[in-house]
Amino acid sequence: MTFDADTLTTELDLRTLGERFYLKTLDQISPKGMVEPSLLPNWTRTHVAMHVVHNAEGFMRLLEWARTGVKTPMYPSREERDREIEESVAHTGGEDAIAIAHEVVDELDEAIAAMSEEDWKAHIVSGRGDDIIAAEIPWLRTREVFVHALDLGIGATSLDFPASIVDRLYEDIAPIWEKKGVSAHYRLELSDRDEERIIRAGDSTGEPIIVAGESAEVLSYLMGRGWPRSTADDRRKGVRGGTAKDLPAPPTWL
């Protein structure tokens, strides 16, 4: 990615929108409800909340790297990141987890405000090991908070996302699968769009899997978050002639 000031401004605004969406979703959970299972395997809602907190802290380390030039990795390792999440969950009650989620967003706001235009151009390494520039951080954080708002499992769905977020997330589907080394081939028949969309990753050959529905619904399926409405809805056709229930699980995404 090359630096573009207008793109950065847009993505900073999207990040603010995403933080508000996530916190609004989180705030609907009672402290006791935080120990309930999330939509992610083996994780409670507190796990999700503390992961999102540590994600913000990791991005602040990358912003510091960009500002100072001193290499400060997002996480020491993926294993250390996972250990930190588990330790935080073990020592953080539901009420505190919600409060910390708000505090860390304020801290991230301050870290972002301290960035100069030259800082945003700095080359760093993401938590997934990708070479990026600092200006990519706002979108990476935006994606994180919108997707994990769904994982809290209180009824928020991709149908609640702004159209701009839905469109941008579609751009990330195939590249993330490519980085994971998986193969996939889908033809999307989006009822709220005038054109079909093809998503292909890896060396997939043969006929594509046909998925039909509103763009936000199909996005939810591709992200591995299921269908946000009843799969009995005849408007959504999965494998030709079938319904969404007939669709195979997509490759793992985030």
What labels describe this entry?
mainly alpha; 254 residues; 9% strand; 3-stranded mixed beta sheet; Nonspecific Lipid-transfer Protein, Chain A; 8 helices; Four Helix Bundle (Hemerythrin (Met), subunit A); 2 domains
Calculate the terminal CA-CA distance, rounded to whole Å. Answer: 21 Å
Helix content: 40-55%
The total count of strands amounts to: 5
How does the major sheet shape up? 3 strands, mixed
Low-confidence parts: 231-243
Strand order of the largest sheet: 4-3-5
Structure description:
- It is built from eight helices and five strands.
- It is mainly alpha-helical.
- It has a three-stranded mixed sheet.
- A hairpin with a 5-residue loop joins strand 1 and strand 2.
- The protein starts with a helix and ends in a 32-residue tail after the last helix.
Write the layout of secondary structure elements.
Layout (H helix, E strand, L loop, with lengths): L4 H22 L18 H24 L9 H14 L2 H20 L3 H4 L2 E3 L5 E3 L3 H15 L11 H18 L3 E7 L6 E5 L7 E5 L1 H8 L32
Parallel strand pairs: 3-5
Antiparallel strand pairs: 1-2, 3-4
Helix pairs in contact: 1-6, 2-3, 2-4, 2-6, 7-8
Structure, briefly:
This protein has 254 residues and is mainly α. The chain has helices at residues 5-26, 45-68, 78-91, 94-113, 117-120, 137-151, 163-180, 215-222, and strands at 123-125, 131-133, 184-190, 197-201, 209-213.
